[in-house]
Amino acid sequence: MQQRAIPQARRRTDTLHAQWEQLRLGREALRQGFLRGVGGAPLLAQHCRLVDGVLREIWRQLPAPLRMPRPAGLALVAVGGYGRGELFPDSDIDLLILGQGPATATQQAFVEAFLTALWDLQLQVGHSFRTPAECMEEARGDLGIATTLLEMRFLIGARTLVQQLQQQMRTNPPWPPALFFAAKIAEQEARHARFSDTAYHLEPQIKDGPGGLRDLHQLQWLAWSSLGDGRLRHLQQAGIINAGEYRQLLQARNFLSRLRIGLHYAAGRREDRLRLDLQPLLAAQLGFQDTADRSAVEHLMQNIYRIFASIARISAIAQENLAWRIAPAATAAPLVEDDIALRQDSIGFAADHPAEPALSAILKLFRRLAEDPQQRGLDAATQRELHALRRHLRPQMLRNDPRARSDLLAILAKPEGVYRTLSAMHQCGILARLLPAFGHITGQIQHDLFHVYTVDQHTLFLLRQVGRFWTVGHSDLPVIAEALLRIDRPELLVIAGIFHDIAKGRGGDHSRLGAREVKRFAHAIGLDRADTRFLAWLVQHHLDMSGVSQRRDLEDPRVIQDFARMVGDERRLSYLLLLTIADMRATNPDLWNDWKGMLLSTLYRGVRSQLQRNTIAPKDRRALLRAKKRDLLAALPTQAQAQAQALWRTLGSDYFMRYGHDELLWHTQSILQQPGQRTLVFARPRQPVGTELLIYGRDTPGLFLRITSALDKQSLSILDARIDTSADGHALDTFIVLDESHAFAHSPDAHQDLSEHLRAIIDGEAVSVPRFGLRHHGARHRFFAQNPVVVTVDNAALQRYTLLEVTAADRLGLLYQVGEVLLALHLSIHGAKVSTFGERVEDTFFILDENGKKLAEGQRERLRSALLDALQQKAA
């Protein structure tokens, strides 16, 4: 037995080695073909033929070296994408092995040996072993299995078994066409929702994102189910799509297939997200080049976004037409009003409307869409017609047609429907024809992780946020409801939203350039001078409120006064607040949090009070200080009041002015309950987000360094810091932190544990070595890690302090490094704010020199130079 096993194993090894070599050489030839520019469809077909040949050869040759009979009653079938004839370099090879009945021992042994051989060849195989009856039973309970069986393709073995299964799928489908259609549409909607219902991401999903390859597959599956033929050509022959749409889908499929093939090669594995670090290579391989106004990557991405838009538009048309084909009885005669047809789930042009409707008729249709309480969409025929009509539209038509201007303003005055309406106009190509500037930002990418969408999609998402302000239940910030009371012209807020980023990608200050664009538009649609000036002001200052709220000391009266002076009145303030919130939420939903909402609320209310002349004169400040202390004493036990007053005498008036009653009471009670301890550390939950820390102890050199090192050791991110020094040499520091590791989130004594950890490190009882390096190690963050460090030192921005701003890649130990430099230069920190914008952070510090004064010019330059040296050296 042992002597016979050796040649058998050798023969099996020889068989596998030959197939391995065939695969290696064939796949290398395919890679070279890709680099030479061979199209996506031929490459996928050739890869399928290569694998088909290998599988058939192993199926034929395997029994001989294993001395087993060739099994009868088995068939090897390709399913899924492989069955469709599309096999990407690193995609799974999905196989179905069909048997006539329960597997015999010989059949089972053969299947196991066959699969083992495929795994030995390192093929990525997905497999199942069933009878036709079992396939039908499984398909009835699983939509995914039913879908893969639509595209089964015979490879080798008992062909009659495959024909039997195919016949059963045709005559008694596991999912009737109407049910299959509804289930696949629901599945598609859920898939799109995973990508925020947009394909316009910085790193788009080529396969599963909206408008991606999976949406093309969806059309083919629906065609298989309802028409009996899943080829795109058959969709044209059946009248579901027209000839032009068929050509667009073929071109889109070929380009995206070639792109996905290149993506697999570049990543060295299966990868369907178009990663930032791979975009330059793929742009070059696909033939894109730099031009005077755009890089090769920008050309690549704009082409991809156009393709996504085409697939999404044509898919919507095809799916609606297929739905009518599947259930014609459900299509009732529409209600026609003024050349507009109103159906149960769609709105469109009436059948007998003018052949080439005027612009006013087009905008009247979109106005009806915006005002529709049922929120219906455009029907397929109307979408197709509008897309064809777009070529005949010109911006001057809007200027010359009063009725069209009136309808457009009516659309913009309906914030609840403006996102849906302008999205439809954008998808049909109408919006860019009427607003050429919007066409320039279509597909415009922004290379950072703060902006996760293209400029046009971000703008539309901003309008969706604006619409939610008017929707019950979406005003989660009380200041939103307060500001809405002062919005007398919603269309002005919407117009400002459309134009706030309209000048992105042109170079220069996009806010100022956008202000000029909105002036031209306001003039074109007949707005008066006051509205035009107001819109220009909103667009020009749309970044100011977020910047001040996140980077300035909102307790500094001068900050509030300067902002109030810039705003001028409460109406402007309210419009600016809502524009800011919508902009921030639409930029990157992962980066908006309650803390940012709280900062905006604080700034809004402080400025509103200032505008209402609710300012605090020096005389009133002293009275307020006495009132605060009086209220605090009343909240303390009688026996603690003398100690409290002794503590307060060591703290300056600024300390009492920057904290509220609840915070001051917590500080006092915490410090008095543990007298004599070297360092006191207390923690409590902070509303609306994070944890509030109080640290009280001797003020010693390097205290800030030890605190930041301790916080970093516990993976706590600082959002805000306030630092006070008492007359008797104690530091009273407070921090608002986020627990990124959730290490303290689940213990009932979480805050006590945290306090003990930090106190031990600050007092030197535990060692805390600062950590350095990128905070996030994903490819996207590494891609941006080399962005330059920017340091600004400004004496004019704040009344009492020198303002230090540091912008750098988000990495561990950054605050520690800043603290090291400040300590070496004998500078003290009196406050700090940290804002994260995707891959970068903007840290703001309020500092003084060792004499408690603002920094002189020479000190500012030395600080800037030292920080750049330290941060750039560590980044390298």
Structural category: alpha+beta
* Alpha-carbon distance between the two ends: 64 Å
Task: Give the mean pLDDT.
Answer: 87
Approximate helicity band: 55-70%
Taken from the alpha-carbon principal axes, the silhouette is: globular
- What fraction of residues sit in β-strands? 5-15%
Task: Outline the structure in words.
The protein is globular. Helix 14 (359-371) crosses helix 18. The protein has 38 helices and 18 strands. The strands form four sheets. It has an eight-stranded antiparallel β-sheet, sandwiched between helices. The protein has a four-stranded mixed β-sheet with strand order 3-2-1-4, with helices on both faces. A four-stranded mixed β-sheet has the order 5-6-7-8. The longest helix is centred in the N-terminal third of the chain and has 35 residues, at 2-36. With 876 residues, it is α+β, with helices and mostly antiparallel strands.
Supply database-style keywords.
8-stranded antiparallel beta sheet; disordered N terminus; 18 strands; 4-stranded mixed beta sheet; 876 residues; alpha+beta; 56% helix
Give the topology, please.
Layout: H1 2-36, H2 40-61, E1 74-78, H3 80-84, E2 93-99, H4 105-120, E3 125-130, H5 132-141, H6 143-149, E4 153-157, H7 159-171, H8 177-193, H9 213-227, H10 232-237, H11 243-267, H12 279-285, H13 296-326, E5 335-337, E6 340-342, E7 346-349, H14 359-371, E8 377-378, H15 380-389, H16 395-399, H17 402-412, H18 415-427, H19 430-434, H20 436-441, H21 455-469, H22 478-484, H23 490-499, H24 510-524, H25 529-540, H26 544-551, H27 557-567, H28 570-587, H29 594-611, H30 618-635, H31 641-649, H32 653-658, H33 661-673, E9 679-685, E10 691-698, H34 703-713, E11 716-725, E12 730-739, H35 750-762, E13 773-774, H36 779-784, E14 790-794, E15 802-809, E16 811-812, H37 814-824, E17 828-837, E18 840-848, H38 857-875
Parallel strand pairs: 2-3, 7-8
Antiparallel strand pairs: 1-2, 1-4, 5-6, 6-7, 9-10, 10-12, 11-12, 11-17, 13-16, 14-15, 15-18, 17-18
Helix pairs in contact: 1-2, 2-11, 5-6, 5-7, 8-9, 9-13, 11-13, 12-13, 13-15, 14-17, 14-18, 17-23, 18-21, 21-23, 21-28, 22-28, 23-25, 24-25, 26-29, 27-29, 28-29, 34-35, 34-37, 37-38
